[in-house]
Amino acid sequence: MNDTETTYFARSRNEPIVGKSSQIGNGAFLDCQGPITIGNFVFFGHEVMILTGTHDYMLTGRERMQNHTARPVTIEDGVWVCSRAIICPGVTIGHDAVVAAGAVVMRNVAPFTLVGGNPARRIRKIR
Q: Catalytic residue positions?
């Protein structure tokens, strides 16, 4: 990992698993409440967020605050996550996919797919 001095790991219950030759950009935030797996030759732009922790929105008040769960995030080989993208809990990004800048990824991304927007949607197949 490059730039670890400016990468933030919050509540590090889990250490992220990072593959060979992967680069995490400046200002990245990985909450590490659940497992985070990053494949080989993955690179991030600046200020990417990977979130694994969540609360149940159907609950209210104190119950919502106390009911915390963590879901894994997997980013497969060859993925490019552009600046300020947010990867939400439970998401898998397929190999060689691209996540556009500022995208909010709430669902799995197929391999060789460009996604963007909020929420992120398929823009096109890369191959």
A: 55
